[in-house]
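User: My advisor, Dr. K., asked me to get a structural model of this assembly before our group meeting. I'm new to this, so sorry if the format is off. These are the inputs:
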Amino acid sequence: MSKLTHFDKKGAAHMVDVGGKDVTEREATAAASIKMAPETLKLIQDGDAKKGDVLGVARLAGIMAAKKTADLIPLCHPLALSNVSVDFTVNEVESMIEVHATCKLKGRTGVEMEALTAASIAALTIYDMCKAVDRGMTIVETKLLKKSGGKSGTYEAS
Amino acid sequence: MSKLTHFDKKGAAHMVDVGGKDVTEREATAAASIKMAPETLKLIQDGDAKKGDVLGVARLAGIMAAKKTADLIPLCHPLALSNVSVDFTVNEVESMIEVHATCKLKGRTGVEMEALTAASIAALTIYDMCKAVDRGMTIVETKLLKKSGGKSGTYEAS
Amino acid sequence: MSKLTHFDKKGAAHMVDVGGKDVTEREATAAASIKMAPETLKLIQDGDAKKGDVLGVARLAGIMAAKKTADLIPLCHPLALSNVSVDFTVNEVESMIEVHATCKLKGRTGVEMEALTAASIAALTIYDMCKAVDRGMTIVETKLLKKSGGKSGTYEAS
Amino acid sequence: MSKLTHFDKKGAAHMVDVGGKDVTEREATAAASIKMAPETLKLIQDGDAKKGDVLGVARLAGIMAAKKTADLIPLCHPLALSNVSVDFTVNEVESMIEVHATCKLKGRTGVEMEALTAASIAALTIYDMCKAVDRGMTIVETKLLKKSGGKSGTYEAS
Amino acid sequence: MSKLTHFDKKGAAHMVDVGGKDVTEREATAAASIKMAPETLKLIQDGDAKKGDVLGVARLAGIMAAKKTADLIPLCHPLALSNVSVDFTVNEVESMIEVHATCKLKGRTGVEMEALTAASIAALTIYDMCKAVDRGMTIVETKLLKKSGGKSGTYEAS
Amino acid sequence: MSKLTHFDKKGAAHMVDVGGKDVTEREATAAASIKMAPETLKLIQDGDAKKGDVLGVARLAGIMAAKKTADLIPLCHPLALSNVSVDFTVNEVESMIEVHATCKLKGRTGVEMEALTAASIAALTIYDMCKAVDRGMTIVETKLLKKSGGKSGTYEAS
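Assistant: The format is fine. Below is the predicted structure of the whole assembly, which you can bring to the meeting.
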């Protein structure tokens, strides 16, 4: 028998039964950091609604992707997210953009996968928008920063 | 005027016109590597159709995600992919699973984003399947390994 | 700082947090009116399950589109609609079909966009079904007729 | 027997067989104009990547909706669009924003519905972003401006 | 090594590479037959655009489902179907409705799954529309009737 | 006036208003049985994560399809399923695989269509995986086995 909750006693994948869980306030924040050539970073920083707003496009892509999580991750529950936000921090020292995505829900299951999906797709959209000038961009870290709510309580990345 | 092809002269985002490009054989391979606790890696390695096949689920999630790329990445063209495959390499030294995704197309535009999306969603699915035992898993690198076909020719990651 | 609720203090688009709003009965009705040549209107009026039921197809398209609203309108919340209906009124004087769409929800956010999306897609479907005989059909007015429920209360178009 | 191509001899709806049609260059442009209070128009005009870029969000929504047309309009063919662009013209005299959407394809069927869907969803997104300050905004005209390619040739709205 | 084409040498599922296959005219027809109480059949037969057109709704559901096949069947290729039609035959002797769905494509892979998906979803929609009066309805046979085109040639059910 | 709840007094299809129904625990189980050549059954039985796990792929396809039911069945409500599981029983005597799908929800409407959709798509996926060796496979029975919860109470197939 697997210790992994997404499998039943016979090893078959299933969508975990959350019907018995409490409806609580749940929140999760995930990060994805994309490293690039300094000139690419400058192109993005110079952009705005007039010159081409890479981060505006990536933010929307992340928000919309959060809503598609149950379509993408096979065993995720469909959720009625109450809030999604995606923010960017430019790290000039590392020539990197850090994407932070936060999702919230009043519900029976956590929203970690929604936050991770939003951050990942936002970072991939930055890649798509800039790949013609910098194919070597790399997402150097994608991870859960924190989550709260539910029986397993609060988690914060060390 | 932006140097980024996804914006027009006025800085407005648009889906690039690929109508004038040649139909050629296009291929791309992307990688995403997810690092985890050694016990988590062992759980995944022990899994199979009887005990819970994490990698089998992640592979399918990656393949299906490749087909949704144009739905996720705002300025990507809808494509009739001719082939998608997703493979895993276990790196015990680093306690890491490396996802490799390859996409092919006979068409007018490249399939880098499809390969990157497949690799990313496969890695996120591994996270989802194992997060109950290891919330600290981190995708430490997501990048394009190589692409070929089209006017910009062949690219290989250094 | 923007007065528009879909942007945060820094001007970044986000999905508004509705977690703190009350669950109330919400309802909205929207209209879209499509004008056409009198012969086109007659073709549609003569249609039925035997001769081709344009309005039956358009009604279903509208109902199904209401369920996709959160997929289409970037900052809309995913909602579990409790009811969707789409009706048609033939206005022979104006040679026009008026689409009315009504959506209901017990939830934390309004359903105006769902009603507007249903009415718009139903009208576009009428266009699609008849465009081979009348490419000049025009949707002359799409608007919210009324909405109720929630903190902002009842609105009725003047 | 119906004169409408979307029905067969018995009046049953079907997706028209386009297998025998030539692959030609097809293009269509549609417009949707949304009228609003002058203060609402000013809010949108003042917006940018720093204060909230309503039109940037609406443009992306329109582009992404064009790719979903076959999902929304029941009898539309799935198409591999080669190009989608969405532009806005501010008409201060009429206190109105005019959305223009253009789609292109090398294929066997026209792209009128894709252009109309893009324009409609972009206009509805403007409504969504501003509805908290102006619920009376109205899309006063949605129509095909021109289309070219295919057996039925070129059409231009009078 | 599996004899099943959807697995590679190592037993991993993949989307078969069809890039090397010829573009030929492909067609497939599938059937699904749903048996019901005679009174239920009579309700459906009496229905029309005025009294409730069960088969009109089921036909559209089938056509739209054909377009979603690659979203539903994990290893199916995304296809630009050129034609989809769904028809119904009432079999009063057996108290049964037979759904026939036909799909066509000029492409590199067959459309059997598209035809089977269209027939299945049309039959399930009949179930949905009538389940309040007859929960015991049963789809007694779903199968491929014939397919043509491609290297494997023509198949006809015996 | 129709006796079918999916039509209103005028015979127009609509999504039934479930806003007044109680939130209760709802559950449904459906079955789909696919008959095949004995050699095909053997190929599937021999399969595993190393040789090709047909049933593992079909299970995931069924689970993911349950989440898409409201997208496929036109008048179904979008639901936040709390649990989905799909199991297989090999019937060697009949050379058949029986798919059982169970869905659960705390909500205002039943989940019969979700269970039927999951079972149907899992069976079609088995067909897809094996069709290269056995095009004559037939789904010989798809039906609701039982459902509970809601005003109409419990139903069990005879």
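One thing worth pointing out at the meeting: Helices of chain B lie at 38-46, 54-66, 69-72, 112-130.

User: Perfect, thanks a lot.
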